[in-house]
Design goal:
This protein has 187 residues and is of the alpha/beta class. It contains five helices and seven strands; from the N terminus they run αβββαβαβαββα. Keywords: Cytochrome c-type biogenesis, Disulfide bond, Membrane, Redox-active center, Transmembrane, Transmembrane helix.
């Protein structure tokens, strides 16, 4: 005896398809309305609190990120051997010069193994912003989960990452400067 499936008209399936599409639309819209909540996360990302750290500086002493709460902080991971880092450094210096006395700090974190190369590099490119040292990449790789250099995190006054950039940028464009201006003016 042969079993034959009875064919149903397509119109029978339309209500089910419409119901599934409506439920999917409602679910996606509900997700859109959930505001991001700043909290510590395993993977630093925009809308999350920036992970804390403490590192030695090129000039001696230590700097802790928590000391800059209440300021906008530009965190940049870089190295002297990185060609694209050299490209973005002059624009970083322009941002630092414009905002350093206005509730803004730039913390550049060198991952160079040979720390003797850093000061000559800073002098060659006329860079005056603070340099922190992470030669074993403990903060870069384990805490900030960087994939290479340069990699930058812009942190709001409340400690939340508002922008993450992988690769070099021209930080001194008109739009970027306006964004930094807005961040430092926020209370």
């Amino acid at each position: 005896m042969e079993h034959v499936l009875e064919k149903k008209p397509v119109s029978v399936y339309i209500p089910y398809s419409l119901l599934a599409a409506a439920l999917l639309f409602i679910f996606v819209k509900a997700l859109d309305n959930v505001p991001p909540k700043p909290f510590e996360t395993e993977y630093p990302a925009e809308a999350f609190l920036a992970p804390g750290f403490e590192l030695p500086t090129l000039n001696g002493g230590k700097i802790s990120l928590k000391d800059y709460r209440g300021k906008v902080v530009f965190i940049n991971f870089w190295a002297t051997w990185c060609a694209t880092c050299k490209v973005e450094m002059p624009s970083m210096q322009k941002v630092y010069d414009k905002f350093k006395d206005r509730g803004f700090e730039m913390l550049t974190i060198s991952v160079d193994k040979d720390q003797k190369l850093i000061q000559p590099f800073m002098e060659e490119y006329n860079l005056t912003f603070p340099v922190l040292l992470d030669p074993d990449e403990e903060i870069a790789k384990q805490v900030y989960k960087t994939t290479g250099v340069p990699e930058t995190f812009i942190v709001s006054k409340s400690g939340v990452i508002v922008h993450k950039a992988i690769g070099p940028r021209d930080w001194a464009t008109e739009d970027a400067m306006a964004a930094f201006q807005q961040l430092v003016e926020q209370s």
